[in-house]
Amino acid sequence: MSDKNLVTVLTPTFNRAYKLPDLLNSLLSQTNFNFDWLIVDDGSTDDTKEIVKKFKNDNFKITYIQKENGGKHTAHNEGIKQIDTELTMIVDSDDILKSDAIQSIYNEWIPVRNKGLCGVSFLKGDKVGGISGLKFPEDKFIGNFIDVRINRNDISEKAEVWVTDVLKKYPFPVYKGENYVGEGSIWCMIAKEKDMLFVNKVIYIYEYEEGGLTRAGKSLRVKNPLGGMFGAKVTLSKEFNWRMKTKKMWLFICYGFFAKMRIKDMFKECPMKVYFIINIPFGFFLYLYWKSKYLNK
């Protein structure tokens, strides 16, 4: 990656060759070209490689990496190993950036770069002017991801830009036979140590594709229960309010049953022992419901 640039746009992709030109065009429309683009191909079986070979331009550097299919989180891990710019922004292959996205990152980050923050969060919007989830409670402020997002129950996606060295400290766990770990679990781990800047500005336009991770929803999660347990366990700590801890305890137990774990083994893994015992029936009923509704989809 180039030393002169502040940010790398990281795009994990799988069989989205037909969408990547749209993202390229949005990057070519940027008002600030001081960024790199790293594409990590997670074992695509379409013509992604051939399409990317045609992506030549004089405005910014494009790097393409291929790996065996392992899920978006493994592509993220591989990409972060390669990045040496100060900041990293994950932009999915289905989505695009607004033309002032990179300039907005520069404008907001430079004044706070020495405050020990983990990054800056902007908003995601759709093509008709809506936004993903809630707006932040103030237009610009330094706060904590857990308080601003999780405890407010605003779990919709935002446009986060992370300090690369922080991401290097928190790789996603990889579980044999599974291909999904939710991003929020890592963001919450980071938030237990560092705050971030929040800015009420849309710089990212999202599109939910058929077959994408967001649309796959719970049917994907129940097939990756160890990743689900990891994500739930992260939230069973003092930083989270009781409503969220209760929800995540049910999920921890539910995913444990999907993983075919014995109750005593779940008990050993759980950081809140008494609360775990109290909530076993609720987690079990959730497991039965999800098993009938989602497992075979």
Walk me through the structure:
This protein has 297 residues and is of the alpha/beta class. The protein has 2 domains: 7-209, Spore Coat Polysaccharide Biosynthesis Protein SpsA, Chain A (Alpha-Beta Complex); 216-294, no CATH class. It is built from 12 helices and 9 strands. It has helices at 20-28, 48-53, 72-82, 101-109, 145-150, 164-169, 183-191, 213-221, 225-234, 242-258, 263-269, 273-294, and strands at residues 7-13, 35-42, 61-67, 87-90, 96-97, 119-125, 140-143, 159-163, 196-205. Strands 1, 2, 3, 4, 5, 6, 7, 8 and 9 form a 9-stranded mixed β-sheet that branches. Strand 1 (7-13), helix 1 (20-28) and strand 2 form a beta-alpha-beta unit. The radius of gyration is 19 Å and the shape is globular. It starts with 6 loop residues before the first strand and ends with a helix. The mean pLDDT is 95.
Beta-strand fraction estimate: 15-25%
User: How much is the average pLDDT?
Assistant: 95
Q: Give a short account of the largest sheet.
A: 9 strands, mixed
Instruction: Flag low-confidence runs.
Output: none
CATH homologous superfamily caption of the largest domain: Spore Coat Polysaccharide Biosynthesis Protein SpsA, Chain A
Category by helix and strand content: alpha/beta
Summarize this structure briefly.
41% of the residues lie in helices and 18% in strands. The chain contains 12 helices and 9 strands.
What secondary-structure arrangement, pairings included, does this model have?
Blueprint: E1 7-13, H1 20-28, E2 35-42, H2 48-53, E3 61-67, H3 72-82, E4 87-90, E5 96-97, H4 101-109, E6 119-125, E7 140-143, H5 145-150, E8 159-163, H6 164-169, H7 183-191, E9 196-205, H8 213-221, H9 225-234, H10 242-258, H11 263-269, H12 273-294
Parallel strand pairs: 1-2, 1-4, 2-3, 6-9
Antiparallel strand pairs: 4-8, 5-9, 6-8, 7-9
Helix pairs in contact: 7-9, 9-10, 10-12
